[in-house]
Amino acid sequence: MHWEEMAVVGRVARPHGIRGQLIVNVETDFPGERFQPGAELFVNRRGQIESLTLDQVRFHQGRPIVVVSGVDTIDAAEALAGLELRVPRERLIRLPAGTFYRHELVGCHVETGRGEAVGVVTDVEGPAHASRLVVSSGDDEIQIPLAREICTIVDTGARRIVIEPPGGLLDLNK
Fold this sequence. Notes:
2 domains, SH3 type barrels, 10% helix, Elongation Factor Tu (Ef-tu), domain 3, 4 helices, mainly beta, 47% strand, 6-stranded mixed β-sheet
């Protein structure tokens, strides 16, 4: 199992209480499915990938508060604070056509419909209904709305995104 090939689904924000509960900042569009009792998540501690099993889960203000098997003190919980929670990509929920996971878009080459190179996707920001591609173009960073009208071809297999940018979009964030 390779850490870089796993998908981020959350990050441990901080301990909650004195009995080892953890508050998680969600980085998935499916928190109810991902954070359930019995779920297996992974952390990377000092270069070692460790498996965590969720024993209990409850949601408060949209964030899961979890109890992890074997984590039953505030000290054990504090040792996990700040760590990313990941799962193997093959365990991700299958998405409908025309939707993509962040890791599928990062690294894609972006070009215009005329074949002009724009740059490479380095990040995806915003919620699913209003996502933006963050594209590195030399020393510049360009934000491109992930909208069908603009991103006309998204071929994650070929690591390629073709855009038809409205006038001024590519100069807007330079």
